[in-house]
Design brief:
There is one protein chain. This protein has two domains: 7-170 and 343-355, Rossmann fold; 173-341, Glycogen Phosphorylase B (Rossmann fold, 3-Layer(aba) Sandwich), CATH 3.40.50.2000. The longest helix is centred in the C-terminal third of the chain and has 18 residues, at 324-341. Helix 6 packs across helix 11 and helix 9 packs across helix 12. A seven-stranded parallel beta sheet has the order 3-2-1-4-5-6-7, with helices on both faces. It has a six-stranded parallel beta sheet with strand order 10-9-8-11-12-13, sandwiched between helices. The chain has helices at 19-31, 70-84, 97-102, 127-136, 147-156, 200-211, 227-236, 252-255, 273-280, 293-296, 310-322, 324-341, 344-355; strands at residues 7-12, 36-41, 58-60, 88-92, 110-113, 141-144, 164-166, 187-191, 217-221, 243-247, 261-264, 285-288, 305-306. The chain is α/β, with parallel strands linked by helices. Helix 10 links the parallel strand 12 and strand 13.
């Protein structure tokens, strides 16, 4: 008699495309039939399902979640856990915390993955959320992809050190090739969900400053609720012919080598996959100083990790465009570091152990 593969129940605030969902897609596709997956999207968004290979055993669990009614939600989630009886519950970020409440007795081994914060926690931790995490995650294994998050979980949430696990994100470095000769018209590019915390308006303002003094283009890869507002801003600044919105693309290895500089304008990040992919593609990075970005990039790149201001970001971009030889050298150093420290093989090994229960709470 064949023993079925372990069943993992994954809970996301949304299963639309984002960094955490991209990581899950890489994991699910890599492990293939080793696990069965069930996914709950708290807001009903399921666009990331398209990233998963058809041969992976994955189903979306559609639940009638009543937002704002915590007691009813906890009861529903307890019933769902009893019905599905997964080998492991894997929750993601604050938006799934009610599942930790529903599983407070640790009937199901629990791994909670914290990738960062929305705009409301970009600059400070909210006391109610701190206390909730402290209470309901104490018996879980909490996975953090950044050193900054690890410090917050340890020092502010005061979770037991033995329950915290640092697992840096990884990318398939072999997919990315460094670009060829620099284009005649430099391209500043970014890959991001078009949400408030990514602050792409800041990048557009920075580009407007850069573009006032030189030929250049801006390419924004991604989609999201701010698309219309960002397009309007581009039109108002008279940049419509110089800014391209590609929408969602699942082939960053094609686009990244065409960029001259990769830019990140976020208010909050931890360990963005987009930066790792840019590094693997041999790009210099101009970024706001968020999360672990400063320590992710090569030492040569750190002068271009700047304050969360459009003028500072414009200065970083301009500095890289002004000195293409230096920019190329920085990109090469980033590529070496990505291959040495952030190849996905290390991430796969760590998550394989987690999903097999070696660290399950």
């Amino acid at each position: 008699m064949t023993v079925p593969a372990p069943l993992l129940l994954h809970v996301y605030p949304t299963f639309d495309v984002g960094g955490a969902q991209m990581r899950f897609a890489h994991l699910a596709n890599h492990f293939g039939s080793r696990y069965r997956h069930r996914v709950v999207a708290m807001n009903g968004g399921t666009a990331a399902r398209a990233l998963i290979r058809s041969d992976v055993d994955l189903d979306i669990v559609d639940l009638p979640v009543r937002r704002g009614d915590t007691l009813a939600s906890v009861r529903l989630f307890r019933r769902t856990l009893a019905q599905l009886s997964p080998s492991l519950l894997v929750t993601s970020n604050w938006g799934s915390i009610e599942w930790a409440m529903a599983n407070l007795d640790r009937r199901i081994p629990h791994v909670h993955m914290e990738d960062g914060f929305g705009p409301e926690e970009a600059d400070r931790q909210l006391p109610r959320r701190v206390w909730t995490r402290r209470l309901f995650l104490r018996g879980s294994t909490v996975v953090l992809p950044s050193r900054k998050l690890f410090d917050i979980a340890s020092r502010i949430w005061r979770l037991p050190p033995q329950r915290l696990l640092y697992v840096p994100n990884g990318v398939d470095c072999s997919r990315f090739q460094a670009g060829g000769a620099p284009p005649a018209e430099p391209i500043i590019g970014t890959v991001a969900a078009l949400r408030a915390e990514k602050n792409l308006a800041r990048l557009i303002d920075a580009f407007a400053s850069v573009a006032a003094g030189r030929p250049a283009r801006l390419v924004i890869v991604g989609d999201g609720p701010q698309m219309a507002d960002l397009r309007q801003k581009v039109d108002e600044l008279g940049l419509a012919t110089r800014v391209t919105f590609t929408g969602n693309r699942h082939d960053p290895e094609v686009l990244l080598p065409t960029f001259s500089v990769f830019a990140l304008s976020s208010d909050t990040e931890q360990m963005p996959l987009s930066v790792l992919e840019a590094m693997a593609a041999g790009l210099p990075v101009a970024s706001t100083d968020v999360g672990d970005v400063r320590t992710m990039v090569s030492p040569e790149n750190t002068p271009y990790i700047v304050a969360k201001e459009s003028s500072a970001l414009a200065g970083a971009i301009e500095g890289l465009l002004e000195h293409p030889d230096i920019a190329q050298s920085i990109g090469a150093a980033n590529r070496r570091k990505a291959h040495a420290e952030f190849d996905q093989s290390q991430m796969f090994a760590a998550y394989g152990r987690l999903f097999d229960g070696e660290h399950g709470g």
